[in-house]
Amino acid sequence: METELPLYLKTLSMFLMMKIPFESALSYASGSGKFSEEFKDIISRTGNVQTAILEFSAAQDSLGIKRAVSQILSVYQQGEGGEHLARLGDELLSIQRHNLKAASSRAAVLGLLYTVFSTVAPTFLLIYYYLSQTAFGNNISQELILYSILFFIPTINLLIMFFSLYYSPPILFSKKLSIDSTAIVLAAVFAVSAFVFPSALPIVVFISIPPAVYFYNRTYLTEKRLSQLEEKLSDALLVLSTTPKGAPPEKCLQHLARGYGVLSEEVSIILNQLRNSVSIERALQDFSARNQSPIVIHFCSFLIHSFNTASLKLASSFADDLIKFFEVLRERNQLFSMQKYTLILASVLIPLVLSLSSSMLKSIEAISYEFNLSNVILAYLVIHSILTSMFLSNIEGKNRNSFYLILLLGLSLITFYLSNNLIL
Predict the structure, then answer these.
(1) What digits encode the pLDDT tens for the residues 334-362?
(2) How much is the pTM?
(3) Are the beta carbons of 153 and 354 closer than 8 angstroms?
(4) Does an H or E element contain 63, and which?
(5) Rounded to an integer, what is the distance from CA 367 to the centroid of its chain?
(6) Is 234 helix (H, G, I), strand (E, B) or coil?
(7) pLDDT tens for each residue of 69-80
(8) d(Cα 5, Cα 32) in Å, to the nearest integer?
(9) What is the number of other CB atoms lying within 10 angstroms of the CB of residue 17?
(10) Max Cα-Cα span within the chain
């Protein structure tokens, strides 16, 4: 919830600078997000702004949220402008950037721990099982080894993953991840194949690759288009800030009809609607509906009220805010890239090490197995790929479980079978 505060405060400050009444400004600034939704819900329930603000503040544990809400209440009581809220928004954004760097170091260590434990723990158990039979003379239950590899180790990895994600700062402008039903079905199919028909697992995985690539490509193109659109919004705001005060929306937007890529395509649609007597408010709402993005929602809300109050001069300030927010997003992606690539590397390292270990143990006649060692390793690789795909999707804040599951399991199987053949 704290992640949304800087944007909410900056947006609210601009609406107050437009001389919009405080109660209306609170509603307009809501946009999307947990903080906005809860704040808006309390106001609608209580019917009194001051009571709602006090009630909301009392229900929060975060000092950052309490501080922001107290500043909002101060502005409401004293009738001040939005400058104080804007400064507080900048300060909170600066704090978030500092916390982001601290969190990235912790995430890198936990990602490395996840990889090392996933690799070393099953290898250690297999070697220890061999030593217990040949050197120590102990008869360790093979069921205990299987239970440890297929349940205990994944459980520890799951705890490491939850710990890492819990202490990672939320992603700005990200949507709440929904349940990926496709990933659940794939995980179930792969798990059944690994435990019941292990010889069919490679076939099932590689059959799944073409449709996974196809659907990922469609999603990627949609996300890429939206990203290109969002990147042009700050440039568009700078252009709009230079238009004469009181100029009609159609004349203001004509400057954006060319040279801005995807944004120009959307502006052309808006201009056609305006020529057909559609209101600017409805046209911008349609634009927002076509491009489901928190940034686009705030952009359209700002333009609607800027045109209504002839306050486009504030567009340059909003453009600066968007540039700062995008810088934070880029920093987060860069800082967490090490953790991401470490997890992907694990899908190659784990089958390689386990393949070497299993080949060594199979070559020793003194040890006997009641279970097929290769099948156990395949089952473990499936479980590890499922967990890691969840990990990567949450790091990115995108529903890519299915794609990552097939990618990681495919890499693991290729490495496992190649290393087996090379060793043999």
Answers:
(1) 878 888 888 899 999 999 998 888 777 76
(2) 0.79
(3) no
(4) helix 63-78
(5) 47
(6) helix
(7) 777 777 777 766
(8) 12
(9) 19
(10) 90
